[in-house]
Specification:
sigma factor activity; DNA binding; 8 helices; WH-like_DNA-bd_sf; two-stranded antiparallel ribbon; about 200 residues; about 45% helix; RNA_pol_sigma_r3/r4-like
Length: about 200
């Protein structure tokens, strides 16, 4: 009996499976428009760190083209696919990973933490589905998510602190300036000398 490829039950784009288990592939999008690439599926291939583009038939991706990624990060590959010279449409995973790319660049999160955070918190994938998409263990998902939340909370607290008015801070915590070694005299120093 011939081998029957294993695919995930979750589908997008009128029947493309989210994951091709035998090919260790995750659907990140498809090519749209009218060109010769139109209708081709785009899957990120774990272990290769690249995106293969081709026809999906008989429960397998028949690759015809590739997008080589400078970085093996899934989010970096999704970004390269989304900025390719063809019209593209991202899958749910692709959209979350593109958001993760921006999180990794604009927040204190590592890209791996950003991947988990985007998939779990923004796209609302389950713990096990996130692990399967990223090809990591569920406990690693938990660890990355916990650290991501801690970093984002710390960053949010810092931003809130920066925008606190000094008088409000003194009212809430009167000893703050004493503890920080800041005195009223230091804030009104006239040690600035004009340049001649």
């Amino acid at each position: 009996m011939p081998h029957q490829p294993t695919v995930s039950e979750e589908t997008e784009f009128e029947g493309l499976p989210r994951r091709l288990l035998d090919q260790d592939a995750v659907l990140i999008g498809r090519v749209t428009g009218d060109g010769k690439f139109a209708g081709l599926a785009a899957y990120y291939i774990h272990g290769q760190g690249s995106i293969l583009i081709g026809h999906y038939e008989s429960q397998e991706l028949k690759p015809e083209y590739t997008i080589e990624c400078e970085s093996r990060l899934m989010s970096a590959c999704v970004r390269e696919f989304s900025t390719a010279d063809v019209e593209t449409e991202l899958s749910t995973v692709g959209k979350a990973l593109l958001q993760a790319w921006h999180f990794g660049d604009l927040t204190p999160l590592s890209h791996k933490q950003a991947h988990v955070y985007a998939l779990r918190e923004k796209a609302e994938f389950s713990r096990d589905e996130t692990a399967a998409i990223l090809n990591i263990s569920p406990s690693t998902v938990d660890t990355h998510l916990q650290r991501a939340k801690e970093k984002l909370t710390a960053a949010e607290n810092l931003v809130q602190f920066v925008y606190v008015d000094a008088d409000e801070l003194a009212e809430v915590h009167p000893d703050f300036f004493d503890e920080a070694g800041v005195s009223d005299e230091a804030s009104s120093s006239s040690d600035i000398t004009p340049l001649s």
